[in-house]
Amino acid sequence: MNIDEIREYLLESPRTGKLATLKKDGSPHVSPIWFDLDDNGNIVFITRDGYLKNENIRQDPRVALCVDDEQPPFSYVIVEGRVSIPENQKPLKYWSARISGRYMDDENYAKRYSAETGYSLVILKPTKILGYTNITD
Amino acid sequence: MNIDEIREYLLESPRTGKLATLKKDGSPHVSPIWFDLDDNGNIVFITRDGYLKNENIRQDPRVALCVDDEQPPFSYVIVEGRVSIPENQKPLKYWSARISGRYMDDENYAKRYSAETGYSLVILKPTKILGYTNITD
After folding, report:
1. Residue ranges for chain A with pLDDT beneath 70
2. How confident is the model at residue B137, as a pLDDT?
3. Domains in chain A, start-ordered, CATH in brackets?
4. What's the confidence (pLDDT) of residue B114?
5. What is the SS3 string spanning chain A?
6. CB within 8 A of B87, min separation 6: which ones?
7. ipTM strictly over 0.90?
8. Chain-chain contact of A28 with B64 (C-beta, under 8 angstroms)
9. Given an 8 Å threshold on Cβ–Cβ distance, is A70 in contact with B18?
């Protein structure tokens, strides 16, 4: 996949991303995230303060993300890079609504989610993006 | 989820696992795998020799695996542990057929896949297993 195809793949249906982060002892952790893309090609997501994922990235910003299609002929995208947690968290509310709106067809959910506190907006700036299609063909 | 529910979740439909491994520089890598469970509750999967995933686990056996349902109300299982590549690779052919049979409804594919060389059977012995359901409820 070229970069435009990858962008489309990441946005076309609301697949979750599986985010790999590093624990304090250097071992890997991986769990699902909701995400969206900003206009600069960064992955934008939200983590809950005090939770493992949030603590991991505050300690080591190196992450990897995988988004895949689990049906034949199978396909996937891998993004690697570093995350940052912007000091200015004002856009959190905007992104909360936008991201939850992608995954939940429920306005009330987006409203409730974007009003909650104790979350941080996180930006993943890719250093490597790879996409593979038709794995089993 | 309790351990029986997690086992059922991992087996009920052929979801891919997203396997996080560690690269030489300690940064995380994550990509999809096909897997199955053995009778001892280990995750069994296959990697291609010389590929990044295979090289990563030969160097550092610490991995994490995530399997999730991407539809509301969302659910996921995380497995953490260490992998080993058995010296006795005779069961590779059996597991190749069994695992590919889970994901591909195509006998020829399983036959072809299990006859290929240059693959290694890998066993993930879990040290931690967690399962979460109804995330957005």
Report:
1. none
2. 84
3. 3-87+120-132 (2.30.110.10)
4. 72
5. CCHHHHHHHHHHCCCCEEEEEECCCCCEEEEEECEEECCCCCEEEEEECCCHHHHHHHHCCEEEEEEEECCCCCEEEEEEEEEECCCCCCCHHHHHHHHHHHHCCCHHHHHHHHHCCCEEEEEEEEEEEEEECCCCC
6. none
7. yes
8. yes
9. no
